[in-house]
Amino acid sequence: MRRDAHHEANCPIARAARLLGDHWVLLILRELGRGDRRFHELLVGIGISPAVLSQRLRYLEAEGLVSRHAYPEVPPRVEYALTDKGRAALPLIEQLREYGERWLSPEPPENAELAPDAPSVAGV
């Protein structure tokens, strides 16, 4: 195992960032924190493409943060809900919201780009 990979595997912050570090994941969890949602409700509430939403929901379900319930109806109805593991992330999302409200303006400063060697959140 590479030294960086070993460090990341043993670091709880790195593991959490790998799981939650995608902004779409955070927005999906935020929406589901408001209650169970159907696919279309998530699309509208987040403003995400159907393909990306499908991929992220599959990921969150595989990681145990989201459950999927299909109802035996015509037309089919599927709802998504947070699991206990998903609900445990909600205080973190609330802290991000509070941080954004206090410290970040809605518009990024001009010429605000990551330094060339700075890690992206999604790449953590």
How are the elements arranged and paired?
Elements: H1 3-10, H2 12-20, H3 23-33, E1 37-38, H4 39-46, H5 50-62, E2 66-71, E3 77-82, H6 84-87, H7 90-103
Antiparallel strand pairs: 1-3, 2-3
List keywords for this structure.
mainly alpha; 54% helix; Arc Repressor Mutant, subunit A; 124 residues
Explain what the structure shows.
There is one protein chain. This protein is mostly helical. The protein has a domain at 20-103: Winged helix-like DNA-binding domain superfamily/Winged helix DNA-binding domain (Arc Repressor Mutant, subunit A). Helices cover 54% and strands 11% of the residues. It is built from seven helices and three strands, in the order αααβααββαα. It has helices spanning 3-10, 12-20, 23-33, 39-46, 50-62, 84-87, 90-103, and strands at 37-38, 66-71, 77-82. A three-stranded antiparallel sheet has the order 1-3-2. It is globular and about 50 Å long. The two termini are 17 Å apart. The mean pLDDT is 87.
Brief characterization of the structure:
With 124 residues, the chain is mostly helical. It has helices spanning 3-10, 12-20, 23-33, 39-46, 50-62, 84-87, 90-103, and strands spanning 37-38, 66-71, 77-82.
